[in-house]
Amino acid sequence: MFQNRCATVVHMQSQTPTPLRGEISVPGDKSISHRSIMFGAIANGVTRVKNFLQGADCLSTISCFQKLGIEIENDKTSVLIHGKGLHGLQPPAQTLDVGNSGTTIRLLSGILAGQNFTSELRGDASIQKRPMERIITPLQQMGADITSLNENGCAPLHIAGRKLNGTVYHSPVSSAQVKSCVLLAGLYADGQTTVIEPFLSRNHTELMLQGFGAHLSTDGAAATIFPDCDLQAQEIFVPGDISSAAFFIAAGLIVPGSEILLKNVGVNPTRAGILTVAREMGGNITLLNERSVSGEPVADILVKHSSLHGTTIGGDMIPALIDELPVIAVMASVAEGQTVIRDAGELKVKESNRIDTITENLSAMGADITATEDGMVITGKETLHSAVISCHNDHRIAMSFAVAGLTVAGGVSLDAPDCVTISYPSFYTDIDSLRRNSE
Ligand code: SPQ
User: Fold this and answer.
1) Ligand 1 atom nearest 103 alpha carbon
2) Is the pTM of this model over 0.85?
3) Per-residue pLDDT tens digits for 40-58
4) What is the CA 244 to chain-centroid distance, rounded?
5) Quick one: pLDDT at residue 229?
6) Which residues line ligand 1 (CB under 6 A)?
């Protein structure tokens, strides 16, 4: 059984792994949940959000906007945001605490840069190491007064809001957080603002802002926003998070005898790279009941245990699966042959340096993995072995290695199992329910 209250997650009793069988609905999408609060707060009227992710990161976003004078009611089945329009935020009485959430600090900075008041943003130990010059540079190009209060250029941030000017920004990284920060600042600028990325990153901001009535156009990896449009409140149903579904896609593929139906998962092509890669590796994955919900493509995903083989992942595929690379690495470590992951240097600046934390932990489990400057090379083995996993308080590392543990006799021990609450509070319960169906 899984035990999520203590520092161990143990796959016990039998020497053969227990299959995962049955259906689950993973929680709401984290990226869309954050954006629903932010855009609802600066829209006119009451935005109602269903299937909102009640994870720690999204609760940090709610708390920041409450401190900015927005009334938000969260009864866990729906969230009501009493929006006050583009110019309705109030000066916060205290520092805004984003916790562990990169999305909150980067997108919120874009909004705060154009206000007529000053604010400060801080976060936890991980946030204080994540790069902020990637948003400071374009915001300063727009005339913003934003500075890092940390000698390493990271949070805390100090923002003295003021009128901004429109710009054309060529981002050196494909990052939805940078793009969204600049587009949100563009709402408060004189003239239009364009962001151009090397490769298109997740496009929830563009789709949702258009849904809220913003004047925004896109052309490939470029997005342009026109200022001073009025946003109008929306009814939003948040689809299941494909980044959370990814753990069960991987588990379903690599644990013998498994068959899992994942209901109501967002399959936006800018997020769904794991489906392409898993199929390229020989994964048996079927999309059922494909439909559109609140402007986002959604499907049920049927996954069956499969014999996987290695593949190469890089270039424009990376932004569409950046958060899934830890669990893809786990899949690769038990696939036949070699998997090469390149162009993924962004992994180094997530909640942990994920190139290092994946390599450290897969090596501890006996995998054949070599870290490279921008990725890793993994040669699959028939089996891994039990190990103690250093999560580095990174939710995606914890869940990826919980999945790796499902394939080995004796399972794995996680040193920080509770960090999954950042994005998937019911993760262990969902694994338990699928394993119980095999008993
Ligand atoms: O919000 P945070 O902490 O940055 O979360 C992560 C994650 O693994 O959950 C990254 F560590 O997701 C990011 C993602 O990597 C969420 C996100 C978004 O909602 O816009 C975009 C991606 O980051 P980036 O820097 O590539 O834009």
Assistant:
1) 1
2) yes
3) 999 999 999 999 999 999 9
4) 9
5) 84
6) 30-31, 57, 101-103, 175-177, 180, 201-202, 322-323, 346, 350-351, 396, 423
